[in-house]
Amino acid sequence: MNGNLIAFIILQMLIVHIPLLVALVTGDLISGEANMGTIRMLASKPISLAHIVLSKFLAGVIHYF
Fold first, then answer.
1. Has this prediction a pTM greater than 0.70?
2. CB environment 5-44: b (16+ within 10 A), e (fewer)
3. pLDDT at 65
4. Number of domains, the chain
5. Residue range of the domain that includes 58
6. Concatenated DSSP letters for the chain?
7. Is residue 39 part of a domain?
8. Is the pLDDT of residue 4 over 80?
């Protein structure tokens, strides 16, 4: 086993964890805003809750890529 194979195996294992990490970051973004009270301000605008959650999800995806 050389270093290239070990690096390849480690990177392939990380691909499995990325969806879990994105879900954790998205949950943290939403719960952090709920804790600070800014989610209420966002919810009072004429934007649906689905758009708010989708934008937080996209922010989490961009954070990892």
1. no
2. eeeeeeeeeeeeeeeeebeebbeebbeebeeeeebeeeee
3. 72
4. 1
5. 17-64
6. --HHHHHHHHHHHHHHHHHHHHHHHHHHHHHHHHHHTHHHHHHTSSS-HHHHHHHHHHHHHHHH-
7. yes
8. yes
- Assess if residue 31 is contained within a domain: yes
Q: Could you read off the pLDDT of 24-42 as tens digits, one per residue?
A: 888 888 888 889 888 888 7
- Residue 9 domain-assigned (yes or no): no
pLDDT at residue number 59: 84
Q: Write down the pLDDT at residue 17.
A: 81
- Is 35 part of any domain? yes
Token duo for residue 28: 């943290």
